Amino acid sequence: MTDRMRIKLDRTLCDGFGVCAKHAPEYFSLDDWGYAVLVGDGDIPEQDRDAVQRALLDCPVHAILEIGERRPDETPIRPLREPDLENLKIEDNEAEWGFSR
After folding, report:
1. Where in the chain are the domains?
2. What is the pLDDT of residue 86?
């Protein structure tokens, strides 16, 4: 395990519950409307890891991410398969994939 963790805050996801500021006030503050703001650069030293990890886990909208992890709802991006334009069959305005006007 490394001695530091890095986090980021996705403010577009924040709904202003304030749980992060309650658990780790040194790293999260609330703006005038009650939405979270990351304090600092997201570098979390070992001694503060537990508090920040608790804020990350308790965020109801998962707006706090540990850098390097993926969201569970993100599907891997598949490479784009380009059509073979050299051998594309066109008959009566219909391509080989069955699309027609």
Report:
1. 5-67
2. 76
